[in-house]
Amino acid sequence: MAGTSNNMAALHDSFKKFAMHGDTASTGNEMNGKNWSKLCKDCKVIDGKTVTSTDVDILFSKVKSKSARVITFQEFKMALAELAPKRFKGKSQEEALASIYALIAGKDPTNAGVTVAYKGGGVDRLTDTSKYTGTHKERFDESGKGKGLSGREDLAENTGYVANYKGAGTYDEKVQK
Q: Is the dihedral of CA 27, 28, 34, 35 positive or negative?
């Protein structure tokens, strides 16, 4: 095949991307079982009929070293070689392997189900600080930036007078007379 080396490079690239997915410390040279399952789901290797998630998990345990928790790229290719005839029944070993490589090569991990911030309708109205009233209004300055601790605390004046008393500071003047 003419495109085999290019196909293998794309396959290795996809292996690295999936191996590093969700793990900041990963080098991309070894893949754990969770990312192996994700690769099989995202790349449609698991079809729910001939290949299930259970088959994929069992195969992962079979190809990895006894004490290891990860597989290398070589073990990854062995797993695909075993999975290919099961996924593509009726094709020869070489055709099935080429088909399964084509499913995976060049693919990236998807972020399906990731929560994105919603901005619309009621959310804008509820988060607009210029529309706040009462005590909530006191927590923000004119630009809408929070005042921090001073906006949340009732800072008491220890003058001895009741709050909002209009004659504050006049006692000494009255006693003098």
A: positive
Q: Would you write out the chain's pLDDT as a tens digit for each of its 177 residues?
A: 444 667 788 888 888 888 888 877 778 888 998 888 888 888 888 888 888 889 899 999 999 888 889 999 999 999 988 888 888 888 888 888 888 888 888 787 777 666 666 666 677 777 777 777 777 777 777 777 777 776 666 666 677 777 777 777 777 777 776
Helix (H), strand (E) at residue 31: strand 30-32
Model pTM greater than 0.85? Answer: no
Q: Which residues partner with 70 through β-bridges?
A: 32
Q: Which domains does the chain have, with CATH numbers?
A: 2-104 (1.10.238.10), 125-153 (no CATH)
| Eight-state DSSP code of residue 88 | S
DSSP category for residue 159: S
Judging by DSSP bridges, how do beta strands 70-72 and 30-32 pair with one another?
Answer: antiparallel
For the CA atoms of 5, 98, 42, 16, the dihedral, rounded to the nearest 10 degrees, stands at -20
Q: In this structure, what are the phi and psi dihedrals at residue 167, rounded to the nearest 5 degrees? A: -95, 25
Q: Residue 20 and residue 15: Cα distance in Å, rounded?
A: 9
CA angle, residues 43, 76, 12, in degrees to nearest 5: 70
Closest of 71, 78, 89, 74 to residue 33, by C-alpha: 71
